[in-house]
Design a protein that fits this description.
globular, binds S-adenosylmethionine, 10-stranded mixed sheet, about 20% strand, single chain, Rossmann fold
Length: about 375
Amino acid sequence: MLEGLEGDDRADALGLEGQVVDVLDAVDAEAFLDVAADVLLGSEDCPHVGDALLAFGGSSPDLDQRLGEREVLRHVTGELGDGWSHNPHATNPWPATNYADRPMATTQGRGTDTATLQARVDELLWYHSVDVKPGVATQGWWELRHALPLIPFPDLRGKRCLDIGTWDGFYAYEMERRGAAEVVAIDLLDISAIDYPPEIRANKTFDPSLGDKQLRSAGFRLLHDILDSKVEWRDCNIYDLDPVEMGTFDVVNLGSLLIHLRDPVRALDAVRSVTKGHFVCIDYVHPPLELLSRKRPLFQLQGEGSDFQWWLASDAGLRQLLHVGGFTIEEVSKYFLLRPGPRTLAVGKPSLRDRARQATTLALAGDSTAGGHLHRAYRCRPRF
Ligand SMILES: C[S@@+](CC[C@H](N)C(=O)[O-])C[C@H]1O[C@@H](n2cnc3c(N)ncnc32)[C@H](O)[C@@H]1O
């Protein structure tokens, strides 16, 4: 039945048959790679698809002919070894001690030499890897430093900026470093206000604070001190952003939060109300949906579990969400990965599903880092 169907038509036919509601769950490697090849090959967004298919074992005479890049691909395959990449820092995981005994913020060792500063930041658990000073960096759970050059930030010099869901302040401090006149960073002081799914909320024994081994803003505060920063941290829910309370901003940044919101349209409404200039939206793109259709605005509803992921979007889905939320997209980044950071333990031998994900992220982002999450950044303006 699929003979003769190309690209989206083929993926849609598979979808209609109910065989690939989630391509990566459903398939054997050959079938997955066939679909990946048909959907992705030829798209200018996916310059790495040939690398991905061969590196992960999806070679066919037809494909070889179409790609004609065997030497390059052999090189890539060699680099990938058995097809999965290791976190280079995985041998230095965060020590598994009793975190409850750890200090929340550092008041001692205020010297500025590299070793003292590194020891100071190492007292805390970090979400973000942040370059603090030359030779000093936080050992984050997640790694985004490689993505900074890809994100289409406007010129921030002299601008009033807002970073939403800042956690350790990776983007907020970057905005300040780029010359913003004023940066406000918001997050939740009370993390029970997070959009947990109803089932989690109904569980009386669930304690959201157990997931956080330290106050969520502890890292932000320490960086504030070390960097002698003027960024202002505020306790504010994205849904409550209000120009009367906060004023408006020349540049608003939102990183990896839409996926965690039950009502992303209401959130975007609030964001738009405080955005006078640019809105930079960076979020997760769900690889299986990219394979199902590059054109249709697809979302997969999750809404379960304590990691509170709600709407897993395709790239076209995110674009439509931003449109519905009242924004015009001006520039879109290349795909990139939110990579596991030094604090993330080594991932085990990958399953077929993991390898298929790696093939997709290599195809789309040119990055097969194990455990990485596909992302894209959109620079927008309010359209009304
Ligand atoms: C996945 S982290 C992303 C951190 C950072 N923005 C980035 O892109 O790397 C989501 C952050 O948003 C915060 N957050 C969750 N729900 C929120 C809400 N309703 N309003 C404001 N912040 C929220 C979390 O506390 C957390 O710091």
